[in-house]
Amino acid sequence: MKKLVLFLTIMFMTMSYGQEIKQIPQINVNGEGKVKVTPDQVCISATVETTGSNAKEVKKQNDEKMDAVLKFIKKMNVPTADFRTKQVSLNPIFDYEKKKTTYNANQTVEIVLKDLSKYDELMEGLVQQGINRLDNVTFESSKLAQYQSEARKLAIKDAKLKAEDYVSVLGQKVGKAITISDNSQVYHPQPLYAAMRMKESADAGASNETLAIGEIEITANVSVSFVLE
C-alpha cells in the first residue's frame, strides 16, 4: 500500500512538473518611443568659492559674495520658491610641503529659471556678483512627466508593430503581452558655457546672444514578450 501511495505521488509530481515547464509560444521584442520638445526652463547650480589663510576672513568674504548673489537673483524677479541654498562648507587644506594650512569656503545655490529670455542677463550677473564656479546647467521641460508618458506609449506601440512584422510571414498573430520591462533613461542636454568666458563677456559689456535652446529628446525603451496565437 505504501509503495502504491509513493508511486501515485511520484506520478502526480511528474505530471505537475510537466505542466509547469510547458512552454508558451511567444516573441520577445524591444520598442522605442521618442518625443522631442523645446525646453521651457533651465536649472542652474552655481557656486561661490573663496580660499585664504584665515578661516574667519575666508568665510566672511564668501558670505558677502553669496549675499550679493542672492540679492541679485531676487532683483531678477526669480520667485523665492525657485532658488535655494544647496550646499555650504568650510574646510582646512594642509600643504605638507609648505607646512601651511589654508581654508576653502564654498556655497552653492540652485536656481530654476522659468523665463529663458532672462538667461544671458542672469548668468552674466551671477559672475559679476561673485559666482566663480558653474557646477551644472540643465535645460528641462516643466511637463516632463507628461512627455515621458507619451514616449512610453509610443514605445509599446513600436514593440507591437515589430512583433506583428515578424510573425506576419509565419501565418501567426500577436496575442497578449505577458511581460513588459522598462529600460528608459532620461537625458538632459547641457550647454558648454564656461564661467571665465562669461566673465570676459560681462567685463567687455558684450550683449551677444549665447543661448541656443534646441530640443530635448525624451526617449522610452521597453522590452515586451507577446504570446503567439
Automatic annotation (TrEMBL):
<dbReference type="InterPro" id="IPR052022">
    <property type="entry name" value="26kDa_periplasmic_antigen"/>
</dbReference>
<dbReference type="GO" id="GO:0006974">
    <property type="term" value="P:DNA damage response"/>
</dbReference>
<dbReference type="InterPro" id="IPR007497">
    <property type="entry name" value="SIMPL/DUF541"/>
</dbReference>
<feature type="signal peptide">
    <location>
        <begin position="1"/>
        <end position="18"/>
    </location>
</feature>
<protein>
    <submittedName>
        <fullName>SIMPL domain-containing protein</fullName>
    </submittedName>
</protein>
<dbReference type="Pfam" id="PF04402">
    <property type="entry name" value="SIMPL"/>
</dbReference>
<keyword id="KW-0732">Signal</keyword>
